[in-house]
Amino acid sequence: MELSGQIVTPAGIVAGTLAFTDVIGAVTAGPAPADCFILPGFIDPHVHGGDGGDTMDGAEGIAKLARFHLRHGTTTLLPTTITRPWAEVMAALDAIRTARATGIVGGARIHGAHLEGPFINPHRLGAQPPFAIEPAPALVEAALAPDVVRVVTLACEMPGADDAIERFARAGVRVSLGHSAADFPTATAALNLVRACGCIACGTHLFNAMGGIEGRRPGLAAALLASPHAYSEMILDLHHVAPGALHLALAAIGPRLLLITDAMRATGQGDGESELGGQKVIIAEGAARLEGGSLAGSVLTLDVALRNAVACGVSLEAASQLVSTSAAAYLGLADRGAITPGRLADFVVLDGALTVQEVWLGGQRHV
Q1: Around Cβ 285, how many Cβ atoms within 10 Å?
Q2: Backbone phi, psi, residue 59, to 5°
Q3: Which pTM value belongs to this model?
Q4: Is 147 known to be catalytic?
Q5: Are 85 and 131 in contact (CB under 8 A)?
Q6: Which 3-state string (H, E, C) describes the chain?
Q7: Beta strand pairing status for 257-260 and 231-235?
Q8: Distances (CA, A) of 24 to 18, 118, 161
Q9: Beta strands at 74-79 and 109-110: parallel, antiparallel or unpaired
Q10: Which of 101, 147, 307, 334 has its CA 20 to 30 A from that of 316?
């Protein structure tokens, strides 16, 4: 197979033709349409739902969200849990394990689960339901047993957090600090502990559910931006963060910033009422809020996040890295995330307005 256009490669944008089977072959420079851009498939490590489906619904919800986000260019994703009673969380992990093993016809690749909660600070719930618990060793081992958790969000200041961080990190799980009130020293120590265990640390939706940066109280956000090793997620729907926050993060950590959706079930369904973790949510003007006004996840897709980044002054090559390459590096997925010979033939084809025209997964067109 071949595609011709402006190909976004690690060396820059190349006008030419891309040859591939189920993996990428050669990129050959030559005449190509100027208004056709070929990017590596998007990777979303933090997505709860879409098109009416939610991770916590089980198999049907996971299939719905995986098919929906594929249509918006996401070729790999991690269905993400929410803080609910422990039996519900474990049931969701089991459903994700099955989805990963069997695959979803017409849906994005399932890399594994993102366990967001319940090991979070009950005073930094954000839109998470009030079922936070401490990460007792038995619960951590239960979460690890299905061998499906690839990312865990936890609050590093909670009792038992250090032991939990070590257990998750030594199992190869990416530990992401979030829904946390940690101060700078506590957060920095936790990030260093993850690295000492041979794993990669991250921050969950930077600047959200962790406080901001103050001169005398820098907190978790500052620890993440000051770290020479940690990655950070960002929800670039322009409701959760302003453009200036994006540029601050890029200046501080550059390629270790990755855009996520944190999308909920209402994504793609327009304004109106929906729910998140059993809580009523109101969708209006592109923002999802609880009845009290707090932001509640997002209705973002990664193609919109990419266009938002470009609108904020980020180059297309850098925006492509934010929605694909950085997440691949963070998750250790060396077989995707860049248009390079030998990697998976997962592509997104955009027009001149950067809207999705085609999506290819393993060399097969799905959109």
Answers
A1: 6
A2: -55, -45
A3: 0.98
A4: no
A5: yes
A6: CEEEEEEEECCEEEEEEEEECCEEEEEEECCCCCCEEEEECEEEEEECEECCEEHHHCHHHHHHHHHHHHHCCEEEEEEECCCCCHHHHHHHHHHHHHHHHHCCCCCCEECCEEEECCCCCCCCCCCCCCCCCCCCHHHHHHHHCCCCEEEEEECCCCCCHHHHHHHHHHCCCEEEECCCCCCHHHHHHHHHHHHHCCCCEEECCCCCCCCCCCCCCCHHHHHHHHCCCCEEEEECCCCCCCHHHHHHHHHHHHHHEEEECCECCCCCCCCEEEEECCEEEEEECCEEEECCCCECCECCCHHHHHHHHHHCCCCHHHHHHHHHHHHHHHHCCCCCCCCCCCCECCEEEEECCCCEEEEEECCEECC
A7: parallel
A8: 8, 40, 42
A9: parallel
A10: 334
Q: Output the tens digit of pLDDT for each of the chain's 367 residues.
A: 999 999 999 999 999 999 999 999 999 999 999 999 999 999 999 999 999 999 999 999 999 999 999 999 999 999 999 999 999 999 999 999 999 999 999 999 999 999 998 999 999 999 999 999 999 999 999 999 999 999 999 999 999 999 999 999 999 999 999 999 999 999 999 999 999 999 999 999 999 999 889 999 999 999 999 999 999 999 999 999 999 999 999 999 999 999 999 999 999 999 999 988 888 999 998 999 998 888 888 999 999 999 999 999 999 999 999 999 999 999 999 999 999 999 999 999 999 999 999 999 999 999 9
